[in-house]
Write a structure and sequence with these properties.
The structure holds 2 protein chains of 2 kinds. By secondary structure, chain A is of the alpha+beta class. Chain A is 19% helix and 26% strand. Chain A has helices at residues 11-38, 53-62, 64-80, 183-188, 216-220, 233-240, 265-271, 434-441; strands at 122-123, 132-135, 153-155, 168-173, 179-182, 192-199, 223-232, 248-253, 260-264, 273-278, 281-282, 292-294, 307-313, 328-329, 335-337, 345-350, 362-370, 376-382, 390-391, 393-394, 404-411, 417-425, 458-461, 467-470. In chain A, a hairpin with a 5-residue loop joins strand 4 and strand 5. By secondary structure, chain B is mostly helical. Chain B has helices at residues 2-26, 39-42, 62-72, 74-77, 117-127, 138-151; strands at 35-36, 59-61, 160-162, 177-179. Chain B starts with a helix and ends in a 10-residue tail after the last strand. The chains are: A alpha+beta, B mainly alpha. Chains A and B meet through helix 1, strand 4, strand 5, helix 4 and helix 6 of A and helix 1, strand 1, helix 5 and strand 4 of B.
Chain lengths: 472, 189
Amino acid sequence: MSSIPTPKFEDEARRLSDEMIAAEARHLAQRRAQEQECQCTEGMFPTPAPTDRRTFLFAAGSTVGAAAGAVLGSVARAADQKAPPGAQYFQVAADATKEQGRPVAGDGGYGSRSQFETEARWRFPTANEYSSWSMTPLDKMIGNLTASGLHFERHHGGIPTIDPSTHMLFVHGMVGAPRKFSMADLKRFPSVTRKHFIECSGNGLTEWVKPTLKTVQGTHGLLSTSEWTGVQFAAIAREVGLKEGGTWVLAEGSDAAVMTRSIPLEKMLKDAILAYGQNGEAIRPEQGYPLRLILPGYEGNTHIKWLRRLELSDKPFMTREETSKYTDLLANGRARQFTFEMEAKSVITFPSGDMKLPGAAFYSITGLAWSGRGRVQSVDVSTDAGKTWHPAHLESLPDPICTVRFSFPWTWDGTPAVLQSRCTDETGYVQPTLAQLIAIRGANGPFGSIYHLNAIQSWAVDADGSVTNVHA
Amino acid sequence: MFTRDACMGAACLSLALLPLGAFAQAQAERYGFGTPATQDELSRFFSIPPDGRGLPPGSGTAAKGAKVYTESCAACHGDQLQGNPQKGIGGDRLIGGRGTLATKTPIKTVESYWPYATTLFDYVKRAMPFSAPGSLSNDDVYSVIAYILSQAKIIQPTDTMSAATLPKVAMPNRDGFEPDPRPEIQLYR
């Protein structure tokens, strides 16, 4: 990418960029400290070693000597180690087959994850912690859905606590008769349940000019996938009636930002969901409890959380979020507006940045692919920086506007390699290279055209097995 | 792949038709869920489009706005409207930056980037000041945006902002936006 001139950032941009790098470094240091403490290598590719946790636990059950060691080890940990977020600490039994486990429903009736699972979101170090975002640890995610507690967040005024018994959705403007709906009212309508990804349009904003963050959590972590349940907007529209001439719908949240976006009525009627369910339970507070607008394939900020109002109109309202923010300033000084759709994209999550392969061997490369315009049609993988491409295996049938996990069998010969994945969606759109995107839009990011980066990601594997974020 | 898609399409179609068929037997014209929303209930909401529809009565000038700004805005946006990137604050810069949008260091402010003055009223009334969102009176909002627009040299220091004048303010970057041209056709296979 040597053809792109190095921009001179304004001081503020430089500071933010430096702070992002520092925040990721802090997170990585913390992770390493934990790993040292528990003598394991989770998250990297596990290096076979007698102190590896799995080996350790297995040994604990098989030999008396190791069992004694395990007890001592866990006692030592109990004293100074708290359970990670979302888990409770329990002592590991010397032999779980020789004593009763915990009593049934001793957790109060709501389960938590294992104390050995430490993956967590980390917050992007914006100066203000109420208007900020946190990233999903994609390198640690398993399967296709994102655990609700690890779904990325983007808030503009913190996370409100809303009592669902008093929450109301008002629908008014160019409608037959304005109406309000309680949560109980909304749940009486026929519902739909659909899997969709949500991606922030700022996902990867640090990566336009040069590789900046180390991990896939940093470069791609503003992406998450859930099963959403709720009422289709079309059902509500039928209930209130639509006046002729209405073409836009303002959606408003009940957070401190009273976040608003104007959405084309056509989109609302096509597939918008007023969602109250996420992955089999009520939608999480950080995701908009008790009600969130889901707009499949649209940039994340339009999926208004804590939804309280829909106003039908004959034109967009030109809110702050659709004029001064979330518009794409191009190198020519003009800005694209209402760039709603998230285009086809994919990323390899294993191996990915900051991991280390233990040596030449077989590896199952895996990652996620998605498109805001429909189903993923195919994914290709390259191990030579895009010179040659090979079809990847899709691990499940792709849902429309949903991620799909892909994998590719790779026998690494120990020489340097550059791993890439490339998604093609059902419309025939092919995920571009960064050079292709910049050729069209120009390069004035970060802090120019920072949004909608869906370029092919490259991970370099060095001869020593270390994996780094590169532009190739 | 093609065959599988065709199968999925057919499956979706039949799934979609089933509930429709079921409804057809017993569905009334409306479910009747929810209750009418009264004008009184709706009166607390606002969203101001560029034509100014919904702007409330009241007015303000830069002179009064300077006081509001000092009390409610300067801590985060700086006493010269220059912004404050300090940890725990992170207030946007509000003025300056004209002529920078096509450079490698674009500075996006109310003055250089915002296309509509009505958005300023909507946003300040809605979500500012950050520590007490929505707490300013209509007169205070008109005043403080008169101050910002005046400091940005978009209006005269003596101009009064009101429902009548605000939609007529000509913002420098009014024509700087274009609709989404994507999909970028050269990226199809």
